User: Fold this.
Amino acid sequence: TGPSTLNNLAEIGTYQLEFFRLSQLTHDPVYHKAAQRVYDVILDRNVPKKGSIYSVAGLYPIFIDIKSGKFLSGKPNLGGGSDSFYEYLIKTWALSGFQLQRSLDLWKESMKGIKKYIVSRGSDKRMYMGIGDDDGLDSISDTFTCFFPGTLALASRLLNDNDTMVLAHDLLLSSYNTFARMPTHIGPENFGFLPDGDDDSDLLVSQRDEIKKYGFYLDRPYYLMRPEVIESIFYFYRITGDEKYADWIWEIWQGIKANCVVEGGFAGLRDVRLGRAGGLIGKQESFVFAETFKYLYLTFAEPNVISLDDFIFSTEGHPFKRSFSFNGTFSA
Assistant:
């Protein structure tokens, strides 16, 4: 049948920082133009239509046919397969010295949809991020979404927008809570919540019990040492200077040391409710050092070490200097 033409939103939308900087360094716009063409195609070949797979402007389905440029499936969310697409809108605008207006416009459009269809208050009164569009909300989330409070905090600082910071803090509390409520101080891969006012009759008894106990239920209880929760708390600590955020990260680090250390490295957990007793996952992903431990270290380093005033982090934790000037062209 030939090679697949299916790809996801994050895969096609996470070149913009890197290719923008490559064009700056080479004085050749071809790289930047290639990355920006993603937006050209998405906007030109998909029109939001109520009741369709793409129903809300700025909330993009996960899967796309790279040959036709059409969205195929996957309800919009901020988790795996979508996350860094939205992250790179605001970060590319910042890296360009605030010159790439379309990136900011797309960010603002997405934020309208996110606030209306993705963010929801749970039965525990915390704010969560689900999967949603005008067809309704699926109240399930994953640890990937937990990058978003930190990105919102950064956006609040860049835009001098306190309302965004308030939302960021609300979402940070639910993200951190998935770690804080576990006896290991380590959170699950996926979790679900009950929207405030909803009936819980469709949930399993075990899910209802966990919601009463934790405020959420564990959908996939394993832990692979992903960075997103630590990353967001790091942003809050750097931006606010409030020591409680450093204390939160230190608590998580103690949980990692107690449960994940093995000879020669670190292992994941099969069940964060049980810790080592529930079994280890015998692999150490590259993001453990590239991101998780980097944000851990930077939390306790001096604020001028890779300062947020001077650098923008890629989705993989690589710092890009913001001091490169950009006047709208890439000429030498």
Notes: The chain has a mean pLDDT of 96. The two ends are 46 Å apart (CA to CA). The longest strand covers residues 217-220. The chain is about 45% helix and 15% strand.
